[in-house]
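Tutorial handout. Part one gives the primary structure; part two gives the three-dimensional structure as C-alpha cells.
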Amino acid sequence: MPSDSSQHSPRDTRTLVTVNALPLAIGVLLSCSTPLGEISVYGRLTLGIAWALTQLVVLVAGTCWYEYRAASSFEPASATTAASRSAGGAW
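Part two.
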C-alpha cells in the first residue's frame, strides 16, 4: 500500500506521460520507415539508434523528476482516502 508521502498530483502524472509519449510517438513513426532509421548521424551511429538513446535519456530523466516531485510533495492525503483506508481499503 502506498504511503501518504507518495501522493502524486495529476498534473505531474500528465506531464510525465506527455514528455515520454512524444518521443515514443516519433520513434514509432520513425520505425515505420526503414530508410529513415538507417540514416547515418555520426560514423556508424544511425538515426534510429540515436533516437532510441534519446528516448532512454528522456525516460530516465522524466522518472527522476517525477520521483523527486513525489518525494518533495507535502500535500496531505484527502479525507476520502484516509476514510477508505480505515474502512478496509474499499475502492
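Part three, for discussion. DSSP finds four helices and two strands in the chain. The mean pLDDT is 77.
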